[in-house]
Amino acid sequence: MNYDYLTPEIDRTFHKGRRHLCNPSLDAEYSMTFPDSSDSHHTSVYSEHYDFHTDNMAQPPPPHERTMSELTAPEFTYDSLCIQYPEEEVPYVLKTGLIHLLPKFHGLTSEDPCKHLKQFHVVCSTMKPTNVQEDHVYLKAFPHSLEGNAKDWLYYLAPKSITSLDDLKRLFLAKFFPASRTTTIRKEIYGIKQQSGETLYEYWERSKNLCSSCPHHQISEHLLLHYFYEGLHHMDRNMIDAASGGAFGNITPGAIRQLIENMASNS
User: Fold this and answer.
1) Taking a C-beta distance cutoff of 8 angstroms, is the pair 82, 172 a contact?
2) Is the pLDDT of residue 36 over 90?
3) In contact, 99 and 137? CB cutoff 8 Å
4) How many CB atoms lie within 10 A of CB 167?
5) pTM of the full predicted structure?
């Protein structure tokens, strides 16, 4: 057998098989070269070569294994802010002037959260456009009024836990005006006394400020006036009795408040 003839033929067969893998349109040409498996040895060479490439192409690439640095690196995911702003037909954009005028609250025990809400309301109400709803302005402006621990508290609230101004006030007071502080102020209201050398005007103003510092004290108007009256000096109490014609208990709470207000102003 002439092996010098077979060797070039096998080589041509191998290269035709490779071209077949790269260009399937060569099927017709290849089938004409090998009609009806006339040479089983040539067919075997091509089949082995084709199966080898097919197996390699079917295997997926190995997965990427993360390094120690990648595994220990912190992953940051951004959560939505706790405030969910209401839908707006025309988006409201805060003015720089309003942000600069806002009062600042830091979350310190010496600060009055109720006073902060009042000051915040005054500033926003004067800067609110006429065609914008109140909640739109207040919810967008309030984060700019917080600093330090107070701002940290806001950022750590659950996403979309605030949907209205009432939600904002409730959570703010629950954090910075706890029940223990409310109890303390209620006790001060119950036992209020006119101090030595304190005028009727000073005593009346101190009483009003104490009640204003805790708007949710839940003490009725007539009891507030009763505690104030009981804490008066003997002389000032006699003056109020005389001004009421000796019938202090028979006057309505509104009339008593107006009476004390007038006498305190005159004093």
Assistant:
1) no
2) no
3) no
4) 16
5) 0.60
